[in-house]
Amino acid sequence: MTPPASDVPLPVSACVLTFNESRNIRRCLDSVRWCEEIVVLDSFSADDTLEIVREFTDAIHQMPWEGYVVQRNRVRKLATRPWILMLDADEEVSDAMVRDIRAFFASDPGHIVGLEFPRKVFYLGKWITHGEWYPDHKLRLFRADKGWSGGQEPHDQVFVNGPARRVRGEILHYTYDDLTDHAERNNRYSTISAEAKLAEGDRFRWRDLLFRPPFRFLKSYLLRRGFLDGAQGFIIACMSSYAAFLKYAKLYVRDRGLRKPPSPPA
After folding, report:
1. Are 78 and 59 spatial neighbours (Cβ–Cβ below 8 Å)?
2. Last residue of a domain, one of 121, 142, 173
3. Which residues contact 30 (CB under 8 A, 6 or more apart)?
4. E runs forming strands in the chain
5. pLDDT tens column, 54-81
6. CATH number of the domain that 137 lies in?
């Protein structure tokens, strides 16, 4: 008997990067069982991530970490299905997102080569629905022969050669565990961003350090109505402003060559 359409796997390779993601990976992979293939590229996890992954797929590969853009393109090339779904290990495909994807395939995709989805973040016990974090559309589903990953580290993104369409079904993002995790990642990501900017020839400018951090707060909290998310919205706006400050302060330090202590006097 032919299974109902809602149970038929779709010709999609779900591609996920992992490194010590045992707390998140089961939820992530369980949400993509509707895909014909699940491909995981691991950067030598030291926890039980791979044991959990083996419950869902045998398509497991391990390679050293070389940045988000490089790793995304690597896992894309390991996939074998005509469509690719890029997903982070701390993300989950919502039921509404699956329905939209099935409707898209059922309607004959035609010339559309990619789908964009709003991403909703769970932060400090609450779903965030305003500010810079929502709807935060992400192009994640695309034809394998028409898309690739690019952008500046650590904020990679998918590019496609052809038209994309936005749908309403959401990616669910279980991001920072707590404020400490948020602060530590701000510190790590700002270092990556500053070094990437310097490598691409960007130089430090005082106006970036002076104006970008306060503008990030105003944009997140007032212009994008982050205040409607209560205390969490205020905290997010402050942390976004601080992340911008760290990035440009670190660019200043690197651009001026101030990381090493001065040589002792002869």
Report:
1. yes
2. 173
3. 56
4. 10-18, 35-42, 60-62, 83-87, 91-93, 114-117, 119-123, 126-128, 138-143, 147-152, 155-160, 164-166, 171-173
5. 999 999 999 999 999 999 999 999 999 9
6. 3.90.550.10
